[in-house]
Design goal:
single chain, about 260 residues, alpha/beta
Amino acid sequence: MNTDSMKTMKKLLEANTASGQRRLVDVFRDFCELSALSLRNGADLHGRHTGGGWDTREARYLEIAGGYSQEENERFAELLAHVVVTLEEGLDDVLGNLYMSLELGNGGLGQFFTPFSISTVMAKMTVADIAKAQNRPEIITIQEPACGSGGMVLAVANELREIGVNYQQEIHVTATDVDIVAVHMTYIHCALAFIPAHIVHGNTLTTEVFSVWPTPAHIIGGFDWKLRRLDRECAASDVGGDGENTATPAVHPEGATTTV
């Protein structure tokens, strides 16, 4: 990641604390929520998923933005533009790097994001079996139970692209985190990279779900319908000739599941 871009992004965030009335962690949190709300409301016009409808999200956006001056909101827009440009240069954990460089990690949650270089090595191992497969599944489903800023998801998407998988059309990600700031960071990354995904604010251990954030690629790509079809075909393949359910195959006819 370009160090000059990182310095610029840090300065933009720090400038919005100049009044002395806001902590840097709160400014970062507000930037992430504003950006996630804006990206989601541009595509999710119906609000069929949990977490409130379009009007509710828009009201929340205006509530947060109303606490900042026009100049400060323009800094947020400039900061998001830097994230966009950086991701266009290559998939990278932009917000995770920024978050950790500002020393905002939540030690109480054990929240220390994996460096992207390590995520890349792990991703190469994760997709190795897919690269060797003779018959690539139509949709590769990926589960990330503690997504953090989404760095691992980005790394897997990048490695899948390297082996010829169009991650914008041929994968679907379900990424979960108990921290709403992490959810917003992952949502921004996946939205801008056009990765079909459900970003879930929830607790993987207790299976509680507080809200679900479908990315623009999920909505535009019709993945609600695609995943329902996948479930039906999986269920059909799980029924043996005697009418009894058989063990679920590792790779069903239309999809493979990878946990990262």
